[in-house]
Design goal:
single chain; mainly beta; Porin; 13-stranded mixed beta barrel; 12-stranded antiparallel β-barrel; 46% strand
Length: 670
């Protein structure tokens, strides 16, 4: 539809994209031009970041900007007898001018898709019915001020004395990709009539939508007889991204032996694995068992690395070893010991008569072993023992600004880790190269706090080279489900400090809990490499909870506590992980303090979407190269936390039951 989500011309429908779909688009209908980027985070949840500009002429600058975060949540799937039902909101968090909520129903009949719904706010200004929610509370009958300087929020949802009705239909023609749309909306443009001389168009529209390719869609429609709507959308699905594991598997050349040898050679197991960059420690073998620790990389799924390790161990295990025990480790953290049958791998990988499912069925996971602090060293052949080298193209853009058009910033991050100190401590480094941005206007259009948290991001962006990270870390797993990290040094671009984190993540469960605390010191952007401090320091800490939603590969995270501006609040986020290594995250933060904008308004929320794409699946691109994109506001001080270099939950993800299960089909070496 006009503002991004699936729908008709100007009204939403109950249709959803396939999980992982990303859509980027622009549209126009007098008096607004819209730009948006939307993500289907999960099967029932779509999130859209939108910037609506009030323009009288597309060749001129906007008179006003009305950003917002939109969402659509499916309540019921369509079946033979019932329509699909969704609940949604435009500017759920954002400017009130564009805010509106709706309940939409859609039902398909042959080549026709019918939609009907109830609208509140902008979607219901026709005021055709009394608000039925008033029977629940008088709160829902309160008037809505569409041009209030205060942002829209949950307290405004579904309020108003009256609501409206909307509906329409889409006809899918015999011509591939072409459909015709007709709708009747309930938006009467009340705010526009009150603010300036605006000719309200007729409520009906008729138009055509054409999908030229799988990734390109555009439409045109007439709004009444006096106005014309146009829209262009680019669409793709993250599931179609290059598979990093497939590219890595193609590099492996050592076959799984079809016949067992007479000699048992534990040292050869380790040396053979290292040739394929599989790192084994503490390799042991007796008459019936072979065991080792495997040091996992975060650029390839754990089952694929485990399968490679089993191949090398089995190839040199002699005639009698039947069980192979592997304990996966990431830094000083460890997962459960995994016991697998050698014969299952031989049938699947060497004789092609078995499957990953059979290996899973016979595998055992022991997560009850406690452990004292263990010293271990990586055996790396890289220069100076550097490892986990990464090259990250980092980009941030913001549509959600009231006082500026699109803001952006691009940088290059070079990351590496050094050899373990005394076999106990990790140390990591990151250099930031700031490439391009348009943040120079930020200090002119927006007030800056006396003690800025992130509102002086424009000053940090001015430096071409900066030290991003330089830290020393101690990590330890008391048990495979209970982990600790202690970190000190330069933690991120804007802050240094000392702190730690505890995580309880029981294996085989969908939940996890944690607590963290950081004594942070603000870095000085006016010193070389930003290595100095400006004297501002603050303690910040949070309690965390995670839950994996069944069947969605979607993780919900709630963190609550004290942020860097000494404000109190909470953040809820949803993270979607894909088999190819891509990761998508959407979040909303609410704070008891407020940021001020140019127009004297305030906001208590900070929200955005983050996307991470590994580029190692592309031919000739090294495995540690990635593209990260953030779509969130710049220079906000509320709701900000330390971007710690090591997150225990993320670090233990390769050790977790959901990760192992999701990628288990890759455990059989090719």
């Amino acid at each position: 539809m006009l503002t991004g989500p699936l729908g008709l011309n100007t009204v939403p429908s109950a249709r959803m994209d396939e999980t992982g779909t990303v859509r980027l688009g622009v549209s126009t209908l007098d008096p607004y031009a819209h730009s948006y980027i939307g993500f289907q985070l999960a099967e029932p949840l779509y999130v859209n970041i939108r910037q609506s500009a009030e323009v009288s002429n597309l060749n001129e600058n906007a008179d006003h900007l009305y950003p917002g975060l939109d969402f659509k949540l499916r309540l019921l799937e369509e079946n033979a007898y019932c329509p699909a039902i969704v609940i949604g909101a435009q500017s759920a968090i954002g400017h009130k001018r564009m805010a509106g909520e709706y309940i939409a129903l859609s039902k398909r009949y042959k080549d026709f898709d019918f939609t009907a719904g109830l609208g509140w706010g902008r979607y219901g200004s026709a005021a055709q019915l009394d608000n039925p929610l008033k029977v629940l509370s008088s709160h829902f009958g309160e008037d809505r001020l569409s041009d209030s300087p205060l942002p829209n929020g949950p307290t405004n949802w579904f309020t108003g004395d009256k609501i409206g009705l909307f509906g329409g239909a889409e006809y899918f023609t015999p011509w591939e990709g072409l459909s015709l749309k007709l709708d009747l909306g309930a938006d009467r443009y009340e705010a526009e009539n009150a603010a300036f001389d605006f000719a309200t168009p007729a409520p009906w529209s008729i138009g055509a939508s054409y999908r030229a390719t799988d990734w390109l869609n555009f439409s045109i429609a007439a709004q009444g007889t006096g106005k014309l709507m146009g829209r262009l959308t680019l669409t793709n699905n993250l599931k179609n991204w290059f598979d990093r594991d497939k590219a890595e598997a193609e590099k492996n050349t050592v076959p799984f032996r079809a016949f067992r040898t007479d000699l048992r050679l534990p040292d050869q197991m380790q040396l053979s694995a290292e040739r394929e960059d599989v790192l084994l420690n503490d390799v042991k073998a007796d008459n019936l068992n072979a065991s080792a620790d495997i040091l996992l990389r975060d650029t390839t799924s754990s089952p694929q690395q485990i399968g490679q390790a089993v191949k090398h161990m089995a190839n040199h295990a002699g005639p009698d070893v039947e069980a192979i025990n592997l304990t996966p480790r990431v830094m000083g953290l460890r997962g459960p010991q995994i016991t697998m049958l050698r014969s299952d791998f031989e049938k699947a990988a060497a004789h092609h008569r078995g499957s990953p499912e059979e290996i899973w069925h016979n595998a055992e996971f022991d997560s009850n072993q406690s452990e004292s602090v263990q010293r271990y060293r990586r055996r790396d052949s890289n220069l100076f023992g550097l490892h986990d080298n990464k090259l990250i193209f980092e980009n941030q853009a913001s549509l959600a600004e009231e006082d500026s058009g699109v803001l952006y910033r691009s940088a290059l991050l070079l990351k590496t880790k050094g050899p373990r100190i005394f076999g106990l401590f990790d140390h990591g480094y990151a250099l930031r190269i700031n490439a391009k941005d348009n943040l120079e206007r930020l200090g002119k259009i927006r007030p800056r706090a006396i003690l800025p948290v992130r509102s002086n991001v424009d000053v940090f962006a001015e430096r071409t080279f900066a030290l991003d990270e330089a830290y020393l870390a101690f990590t330890h797993s008391f048990r495979p489900d209970f982990h600790l990290s202690l970190i000190s040094g330069y933690l991120e671009e804007m802050y240094a400090g000392t702190g730690g984190e505890l995580l309880y993540r029981p294996f085989g469960k969908r939940y996890a809990f944690g607590i963290e605390g950081w004594q942070s010191f603000k870095r000085d952007p006016y010193q070389d490499l930003n290595i100095g401090f400006n004297g501002d320091h603050v303690f910040t800490g949070h309690v965390n909870g995670w839950y994996d939603i069944p069947g969605q590969d979607l993780t919900l995270n709630i963190k609550a506590g004290r942020f860097l501006a000494e404000d109190l609040g909470a953040r809820i986020s949803a993270v979607k992980r894909f088999d190819n290594g891509a990761k998508l995250e959407g979040f909303v933060t609410l704070s008891n303090q407020a940021d001020f904008d140019l127009f004297g308004g305030t906001t208590h929320s900070y929200n955005g979407i983050r996307l991470s794409l590994p580029l190692g699946g592309i031919k000739y691109v090294p495995r540690g190269v990635a593209f990260n994109a953030k779509f969130e506001p710049f220079g906000r001080d509320i709701g900000q936390d330390i971007q710690k270099p090591i997150s225990l939950y993320e670090a233990t993800e390769p050790l977790s039951f959901p990760h192992l299960k999701r990628h288990w089909n890759k455990i059989v070496p090719k």
